[in-house]
């Protein structure tokens, strides 16, 4: 078996976001987060609930295992029993996320997805982020519009939590006194200097940053043969 690719390290890093969550609804957005959630369910998070995005709970292979009516889904969303992994067009040092527009809101340079469910996601249940191309255009000093709510704006939000941010360069968390972003691990082949150069704000960098956890042989087999035999992960992160 060949060694893990950068994309497979990203899958592992995303899967780890759900470690220890217990019976919560996973809502991964994008190929690598989806592969990660399914891998977590098959290995260290057997109680994780997966959804087809509509009205069904599904097994990792996509076959139905339960019904999730919309009213029940909303109860999970507002009660802290869902863990979302979203994307971000911009994210800042405190985890404020933008997916709505680039530039001034009244006359933006670029119109994006719109705010969507980001405020409700971030205030009412844990929300992690996946960013496939780490750059200063994404990791910015100040987001142009706050869609997902960061730690500096979430006072009093009972279920607000940002467990991790995963990019193609490493893993980040907010385990700092002021809840600003910290470099938690580096993917193999990536240096601290590369991450700093690609980040548009001052990032907390502890001494001796560890490497992102390597997938086990069984996890690699599951990724390659069961969860993602078509190789969708490599189309999102090629390295």
UniProtKB/TrEMBL annotation:
Superkingdom of origin: Bacteria
Keywords from the named record: Transferase
GO molecular function: CoA-transferase activity
Pfam family name, one: CoA_trans
Similarity comment text for this entry: Belongs to the 3-oxoacid CoA-transferase subunit B family.
Name of the featured protein: Acyl CoA:acetate/3-ketoacid CoA transferase beta subunit
Source organism of this protein record: Streptomyces luteogriseus
